[in-house]
Design brief:
Elements: H1 12-26, E1 30-34, H2 39-50, E2 54-61, H3 67-80, E3 84-88, H4 95-98, H5 104-123, E4 127-129, H6 142-149, H7 155-158, H8 163-172, H9 198-213, E5 220-224, E6 227-231, H10 237-242, H11 244-253, E7 258-261
Helix pairs in contact: 2-8, 5-6, 9-11
């Protein structure tokens, strides 16, 4: 199938990359996109449907996915007319995931892609897609190893699209979430070795939702047993002190005993601090990033061998 022409008026390099994505998607007999509701997977799902082939976008629901994010994914899919389905994720049934070791993200994505592969085989979907972009390949992304093992295609990365490119294309196409910040799963708020349980994830979700309701849009509540450690951007610290009692009530209402405000402020991957990251290697990369994987807020799996055969 020949792809439709790339209609948005774009800089030549970006237009070329966008056309390449369409060509890749047109080469697949049918597609199943791992759709989170973020800008990357939304762009892939929209373009996969745009090329005119049989296409499905699938969101895996689980206790680690905030209810607000699930609702937003559904709303975005409906607004864009996507063929969308929500399934129940199975990562919580994996003891390797629940134990919350350094390989948690690998096991989480592995469970997702195996489930999508079973669905694809059962309903005869040709190729599984994800929203990995070129920038992701330079981060700790243990999920990329799981994607390789299950032959998941990465059309954005393959076409050379960076995160900025992805947002620019999404904006040009009028996608409502083109500016949506990346969101880490709720399990990233638990220190390594702390079991991932629905109860702990629900505590974090309730606390963060209440704090966002108080006007703190960028917030992380780290779960340290009976204590919740609140991370906020430096510019929100003064306001947090002024609303100290409100913050404490919100935290205690979520089931914590103590509320602590982290004086170092919000930083992605703070639970990596003190971890022996020198023993970890990024997937298919030699450069060692200083932070954990984007989208996970945690370090990557150790050197888990990728499938030696190339992805589709």
């Amino acid at each position: 199938m020949n792809p439709p022409p790339w209609n948005p008026i774009l800089p030549p390099d970006l237009a070329r990359k966008g056309q390449r994505v369409l060509e890749l998607l047109s080469s697949y007999p049918s597609t199943l996109t791992a759709y989170s509701g973020g800008v990357d997977s939304t762009l892939v799902a929209v373009l996969a449907q745009r090329v005119g082939g049989r296409a499905l976008a699938v969101t895996a629901d689980s206790p680690s996915l905030p209810r607000e994010e699930l609702a937003l994914a559904r709303q975005t899919a409906q607004t864009l007319g996507l063929n969308h389905r929500v399934i129940l994720g199975k990562e919580m049934a994996d003891p390797a995931y629940q134990s919350n070791g350094l390989t948690r993200c690998y096991h989480c994505k592995g469970a997702l892609y195996r489930q999508l592969k079973e669905l694809a085989q059962r309903e005869e979907w040709g190729v599984i897609l994800n929203g990995t972009n070129l920038d992701d390949l330079g981060d700790y992304r243990p999920g990329l190893t799981a994607a390789q093992e299950q032959r998941v295609a990465q059309p954005l990365a393959e076409a050379g699209l960076t995160k900025a490119d992805t947002r620019a294309l999404a904006q040009a196409l009028g996608l409502p979430n083109w500016q949506k910040p990346a969101q880490a799963c709720l399990a990233s708020r638990l220190p390594y070795g702390t079991a991932v349980t629905p109860q702990a994830l629900a505590q974090v979700e309730q606390a963060e939702q209440t704090l966002r309701g108080l006007g703190f849009s960028q917030v992380r509540v780290r779960h340290h047993g009976t204590t919740a450690r609140i991370e906020l951007p430096p510019e929100d610290m003064a306001r947090a002190w002024a609303l100290g009692q409100d913050l404490a009530r919100a935290i205690k209402a979520a089931g914590f005993t103590f509320a602590a405000l982290d004086l170092e402020g919000y930083r992605s991957g703070s639970l990596n601090e003190g971890q022996a990251t020198e023993s970890l290697v990024p997937v298919n990369h030699t450069a060692l990033p200083s932070k954990g994987p984007r989208g996970c807020d945690t370090p990557a799996a150790p050197n888990i061998p990728a499938d030696p055969e190339p992805k589709r």
